[in-house]
Write a sequence for this structure.
């Protein structure tokens, strides 16, 4: 595959945590290339290192050793501000617990990444409404997270991740806190978006539904890609 | 709760400061009303005058008054220039066989009345009437301290209410007959004796003249007044300058202790003093401000400002730690939010700005609320006209709170507390910004 076909490339990456003076090696010399425009799923048991791998690809953590290239950039060389700006422009996140701002409405939550990117007001409004429309929540834009169901909150989170047209969307167990039916709806939504927009999705999940629909599957066990 | 804590601190500082401000300006008003802004004495009086007042009397006071009043640079600042004569002696109510030592003050009644109405700060100082009621043409008239009137058994003569008369005395063989002293007045000052208005309250005043000889005059007391400090209340007699000069100068050249100058505004006192030192020969005269004449004024202000500074510092520390605590709690409660914001691409500096901004907002709300509450409370207290009697005072004065006497006081307190609240948010804000994103996201 040509290099531009990969949204993320990891070369011999290790990640070590300290837990009460005990050294834990979460990732052990991982080398993996994540392809663009695909529905990628990383699977593994709890404690296998899949969340750590996702965090490194998402540039919210740094490797202990090894190199990581995201969207063609060597992110290890970035300063903290450069990393923040990079995430703001190129990477969308969907969290297991939705992580919506409780004091913002659905509209404002989706608008938030555009504010960070200093998008002008008119363009912000257009993009937010269009994205809420995509996830089927345009009529709920004034509601606050505590007024929405779990499925609706995750839709808002998806909209927030997509509104800035990112290079990739990372989702750590996005359906873990949803019932089966809602989880299926969410996966279908993301699939439709991926098919239309060709957005790269990278999930970590146990969800069989997600696994079944994966275009590329990466299995990780004890910090090693199998 | 933090807003409330800041508001309460603001109220405390403003009310306390407003009261201190009120006390300081009331004190100044009191001093300026009784002794003017500036005194001019003969050179050396302030150092040696107490031991030999006669040697330091001013003879040419009328000429000096003319020079001062006609100076074009001083004219806009001047309110009045009044000669005065300060002396000591023995006052006797020989009808009642009572006597005591006294402080005498010879004044020009019309100018003294004007002196007592000085009101740069528009403060209502006391409920007590401070007018002497003396007239320029009443050459033998005088006013006595209330406490002194009681001691000299003048309660009935002066028709004083709530007056405590001394117990009746037993006549002893050694005591001099009362009429002997009174006779001195009638013999030496027949003109005065015949010119006296009929009054039941009369005192005979004995003092040494500038030549050293004893002299006696009679003063017809028009009223008794509660006079400021206890010492004055129990020992001061104010009289017409003419009468005081008769007592002290006798048939000699009439002199005064000095000139009392009252200005329209205290702010200009330094410039006026400078100008006076330019136009008056420095070898012959000394110019003293009221602060120099009464060092206790400066010491009292210094004491109050020190106390206020200490209290303000304590309040500032309380606000500081309260805000640090609140903002730290806020950071703790919003760790997940902070992690999410950082993951979405918010820079560390933006997180810091957000929390410092919240601290600023808390400070602004608390400080503004406190200022409004302090204004309301001060208005209520001022309307209630509560009185209190300061140490060594005979008259009660009004307890008041004025926050605008010093124009920068209220804005500085308001801004100061906002600044403290803002600054105290910096540490929690930095802690929030420095959090590892993955750790923050895990905190749910």
């Amino acid at each position: 595959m040509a290099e531009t076909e990969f949204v993320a490339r990891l070369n011999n990456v290790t990640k070590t945590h300290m837990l009460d003076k005990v050294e834990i090696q979460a990732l052990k010399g991982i080398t993996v290339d994540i392809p663009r425009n695909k529905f990628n799923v990383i699977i593994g048991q709890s404690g296998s290192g899949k969340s750590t791998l996702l965090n490194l690809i998402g540039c919210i953590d740094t490797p202990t050793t090894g190199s990581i290239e995201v969207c063609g950039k060597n992110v290890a060389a970035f300063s903290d501000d450069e990393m923040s700006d990079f995430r703001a422009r190129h990477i969308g996140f969907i969290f297991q617990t939705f992580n919506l701002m409780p004091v913002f409405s659905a509209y404002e939550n989706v608008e938030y990444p555009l504010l960070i990117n200093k998008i002008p007001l008119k363009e912000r409004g257009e993009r937010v409404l269009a994205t809420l429309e995509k996830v089927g929540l345009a009529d709920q834009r004034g509601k606050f997270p505590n007024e929405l169901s779990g499925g609706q909150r995750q839709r808002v989170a998806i909209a927030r991740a997509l509104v800035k047209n990112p290079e990739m969307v990372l989702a750590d167990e996005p359906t873990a806190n949803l019932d089966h039916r809602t989880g299926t709806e969410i996966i279908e939504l993301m699939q439709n978006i991926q098919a239309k927009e060709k957005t790269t999705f990278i999930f970590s999940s146990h969800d069989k539904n997600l696994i079944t629909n994966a275009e590329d599957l990466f299995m990780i066990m004890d910090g090693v890609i199998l | 709760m933090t807003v409330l804590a800041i508001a309460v601190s603001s109220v405390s500082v403003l009310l306390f400061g407003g009261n201190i401000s009120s006390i300081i300006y009331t004190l100044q008003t009191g001093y300026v009303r009784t002794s003017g802004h500036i005194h001019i004495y003969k050179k050396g009086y302030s150092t040696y005058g107490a031991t030999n007042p006669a040697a330091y009397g001013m003879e040419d006071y009328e000429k000096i008054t003319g020079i001062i009043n006609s100076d074009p640079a001083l004219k806009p600042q001047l309110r009045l220039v009044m000669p005065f004569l300060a002396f000591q002696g023995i006052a006797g109510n020989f009808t009642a066989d009572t006597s005591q030592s006294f402080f005498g003050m010879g004044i020009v009644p019309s100018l003294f009345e004007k002196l007592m109405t000085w009101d740069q700060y528009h403060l209502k100082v006391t409920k007590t009437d401070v007018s002497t009621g003396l007239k320029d043409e009443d050459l033998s008239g005088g006013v006595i301290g209330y406490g002194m009137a009681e001691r000299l058994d003048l309660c009935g003569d002066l028709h004083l209410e709530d007056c405590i008369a001394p117990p009746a005395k037993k006549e002893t063989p050694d005591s001099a007959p009362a009429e002997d002293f009174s006779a001195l007045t009638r013999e030496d000052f027949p003109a005065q004796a015949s010119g006296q208005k009929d009054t039941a309250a009369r005192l005979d005043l004995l003092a040494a003249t500038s030549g050293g000889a004893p002299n006696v005059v009679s003063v017809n007391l028009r009223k008794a007044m509660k006079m400021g400090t206890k010492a004055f209340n129990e020992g001061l007699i104010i009289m017409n300058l003419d009468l005081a000069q008769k007592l002290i100068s006798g048939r000699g050249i009439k002199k005064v202790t000095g000139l009392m100058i009252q200005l329209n505004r205290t702010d200009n006192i330094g410039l006026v003093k400078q100008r006076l030192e330019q136009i008056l020969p420095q070898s012959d005269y000394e110019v003293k401000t009221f602060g120099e004449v009464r060092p206790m004024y400066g010491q009292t202000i210094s004491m109050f400002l020190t106390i206020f500074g200490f209290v303000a510092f304590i309040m500032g520390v309380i606000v500081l730690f309260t805000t640090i605590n609140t903002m730290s709690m806020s950071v703790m409660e919003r760790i997940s939010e902070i992690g999410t914001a950082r993951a979405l691409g918010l820079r560390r500096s933006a997180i810091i700005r957000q929390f410092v901004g919240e601290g600023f907002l808390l400070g602004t709300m608390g400080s503004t609320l406190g200022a409004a509450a302090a204004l309301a409370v001060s208005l209520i207290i001022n309307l209630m006209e509560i009185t209190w009697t300061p140490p060594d005072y005979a008259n009660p004065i009004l307890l008041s709170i004025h926050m605008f006497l010093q124009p920068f006081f209220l804005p500085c307190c308001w801004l100061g507390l906002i600044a403290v609240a803002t600054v105290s948010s910096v540490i929690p804000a930095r802690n929030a910004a420095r959090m590892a994103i993955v750790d923050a996201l895990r905190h749910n």
